[in-house]
Records
---
Amino acid sequence: MYIVHVHVHVKPEQVEAFKAATLENARSSLAEPGVARFDVIQEADDPTRFVLVEVYRTPGDPARHKETAHYNHWRETVEPLLAEPRTRTVYANVFPDDGNW
């Protein structure tokens, strides 16, 4: 599994618009064969901060995800809503083992 956490800081007045666009993207992403999981979480103490937890089946699946119409629509929609550029961190799976996803 190839796990990516995307850290997002949204302008305070754009939180609801960001959530709507991101939930649409997340739902569409789950239909991709290379996506095992796509979570959207919001920081409890600062609701302008989100983490997208994306779990892909192979290291090549994120590139395929970025070629989809729903991802590109999301990217274009949310870019002006951000307080700063988004960042990402890549993780290696430890548990459960890849066969149990």
Note: The chain is about 30% helix and 30% strand.
---
Amino acid sequence: MHELSIAQSIVQLAEQEAQKYHAWQITEIELEIGVFSGIEIQALMFALEFAVKDSLLEKADIIYLPIEGKGECRECESDFLLKSLFSPCPNCGSYNIQIVNGKELRIKSICIK
């Protein structure tokens, strides 16, 4: 379950940022997670329940913001929403696609006290 190590990294990164501002608590954290990131959201949320224990995030609201998949066709240069990793270009039918959105995992914001 790689979600546990991801959860631990999220806690570590958020605490490092909060400590720069001498915060004693993180009240909210927003996570952007792409639909093609390979992360099981429910498993990550479950792992975060354990990872935040005894940390600045222990009482934080955790907000998950999904990022939809977007692709760009390398043949006709069309931009389009991707329903799956193996979707062809809706304009020309090519499978020569570059994923431009949907693989992200990032902390968008944290609120501190």
Note: Residues 2-69+102-112 form a domain with the hypothetical protein PF0899 fold fold (CATH 3.30.2320.50).
